[in-house]
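User: Here's a chain of 308 residues. Predict its fold as tokens.
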Amino acid sequence: MDFLRKQLRPNDRLVQSFLFFGEKRLGKMTLAKMFGQSILCEKHEFPACNKCDNCHSYLNNIHPDILILEIQEDKNSLTINQARSAIDFLSYKPQIGNCRVLIIDEAENLTDEAQNALLKILEESPKDSLVILTSSQVQRLLSTVLSRVFPIRFSRVTKKGLADWLVSYKKIKADEAENLANISQGIPGLAILMHEDKKYLKELVKARDNLSNVLKGEFGQKAKIIEELSKEPDNLKFNLSQWLEYIRNQLLFELGLNELTIFPKKDENMSVSLNGKVKLLKELQKASFLLEDLNLNKRLLLENIFIK
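Assistant: Prediction complete.
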């Protein structure tokens, strides 16, 4: 935070292009927007004052000096045309602020063509501009893009830190905050989502029940779960992400690295050996990666892991 505060004034700014990266729901986009507003704020405060004309324009979504690119619901990528609109946006001088701010959310969704188009503005951004990319999958960004941005990694919050934050800033009762901090695995955005959407919490619990059942259930039960998940790609991705996290934490317990875990205790009912957990983790990581292939037989993929 202190580093970002030092970047608020154009004459003091050492970095023109940032990359905020880390897992989903860690607050990357929230901080990017906060920082963008602070850059435009007439008082150069962080967080912004919310009182000046620039802040009012920003809060009403009418500030001409900020552009936020996000993937459209009906699209799979950020296109070359969106990249060109961003380049065009930065080619003009600020209209009412002292800087032009470009934020690209989930930049890994930029096509290779779009990423290549942005290289010049990332390397030679105008002094009165700021570019912020956010990403939860930096491996999908071109190395030429990565070499031109200043990376800031976002990490998970400790259980106590997240619980205290939920109590202080979200006014959630202490016992619920502690429970949310544990179940959300130290991810602030996930904790808030579960607090606001009880259905999501039920889905999370169901995902972990599914894991238990595909590991220990009878053949028919395993086959039924696999068939249901195979028909719903988004739900399958959600389940895989939860399974990966759960097994990863159980491995840490197994290795005696309890201080690094997110879950409150070891699952004594998980009847998989240490080597079995390592193997399962590798298989699920590979499956999660392969799911990006839309033509993949998802049912067969799961059956190869859990029905042998």
